[in-house]
Design a protein that fits this description.
By secondary structure, this protein is α/β, with parallel strands linked by helices. 52% of the residues lie in helices and 14% in strands. Helix 1 packs across helix 2. The chain is flat, with a radius of gyration of 27 Å.
Length: 316
């Protein structure tokens, strides 16, 4: 078989796999636009706010699409290479040279290893995002008493190149809350494995230490303070908070950063001794400006961060 004939044969095999998929996708797109949504529009006219973990859920959905593609590719690759190997036999009634089979088998093995490694990385990242999402949902639920106390809790606030998991605007002040979901060890004593200490700089877990969360929380609170001060005309100083749902947290030193289990959120309802409580009018003005940073995208449109390929740094 000549090189051109071999190339044509391979193109036929690829086409046999891809053309049906393209046709099905095209039919679904036509059905959606000309049948399902024909002469219909959404009745929702209110600008909705982002839900807890909205950005993470977008990333999970995108990863699930990638995982599906890789799984399909691991099926296509062996079939296409095997079909390429079998074509000479069908066309010339002679067996392909053994070296062709060895080369194709080696190519299939290399491609399968590559696809498997990529698939494992995607699945691992997706699992980390799911764990991070579970942490944000837990924190959001545990912060609900703030609302009963006259405050507001807003989620997934968008900033240039990053997001803030939750912003609390309450009588006790403005708080930029960064959730950290960390798994506990199944070894050792239960109480010891559930405790984390914070000295203002480092979170000391039973088996490891982290310093980046404090730096991240400070940077986010600083950006939020500057943004709200400019937009409200009030002197807003957001306090950085690290939320660790499911952990017993002990703060060993006084610090501008507070590490806490979000169950213990009542401190946000009471101002510190050297500060005045936020008035209901101030809470309303600040909350309105925060709302502008967490509006949901239009249906069918990706958010700016998702479109830029934003990856959540907390899942790492």
């Amino acid at each position: 078989m000549t090189f051109l004939a071999s190339l044509q044969a391979q193109a036929i095999i690829v086409g046999m796999v891809l053309v049906p998929l393209i046709l099905i996708a095209g039919v679904l797109v036509l059905w959606k636009h000309f049948v399902r949504n024909r002469n219909r529009r959404s009745p929702l006219t209110t600008d909705l706010l982002r839900t807890p973990g909205f950005g993470l859920q977008e990333q999970i959905d995108a990863l699930n699409d990638d995982i599906t593609v890789y799984l399909m590719a691991t099926t296509w690759v062996p079939l296409m290479l095997f079909g390429t190997y079998q074509l000479p036999t069908q066309n010339t009634q002679t067996l392909s040279p053994p070296t062709n089979g060895i080369l194709l088998a080696a190519a299939a093995l290399v491609l399968l290893v590559f696809l498997t490694v990529r698939l494992i990385r995607k699945v691992d990242l997706c699992q980390r995002y799911r764990e991070a999402l579970a942490g944000e949902l837990a924190t959001a639920q545990l912060l609900e008493p703030i609302i009963a106390g006259g405050g507001r809790v807003l989620h997934d606030i968008q900033a240039p190149g990053f997001n803030i998991d939750h912003v609390v605007v309450a009588p006790g002040g403005v708080f930029a809350v960064e959730t950290k979901h960390r798994l506990k060890s199944t070894q050792g004593k239960g109480k010891e494995q559930a405790k984390v200490t914070f000295d203002g700089q480092a979170l000391r877990f039973p088996d490891w230490t982290e310093t980046k969360p404090a730096e991240q929380a400070r940077a986010q609170a600083r950006w939020l303070s500057e943004r709200l001060t400019k937009s409200t005309g009030l002197e807003v100083k957001a306090r950085p908070v690290i939320a660790l749902p499911g952990w017993f947290v002990e703060n060993t030193n006084r610090s501008d950063v507070i590490a806490t289990n979000p169950k213990a959120c009542q401190f946000m309802l009471k101002a510190r001794a050297d500060e005045a409580s936020l008035t209901p009018d101030a809470i309303k003005r600040i909350s309105f400006q925060v709302e502008q940073l967490c509006r949901m995208p239009e249906p069918g449109q990706a958010t700016e961060l998702a479109a830029k390929g934003w990856k959540d740094r907390r899942a790492g």
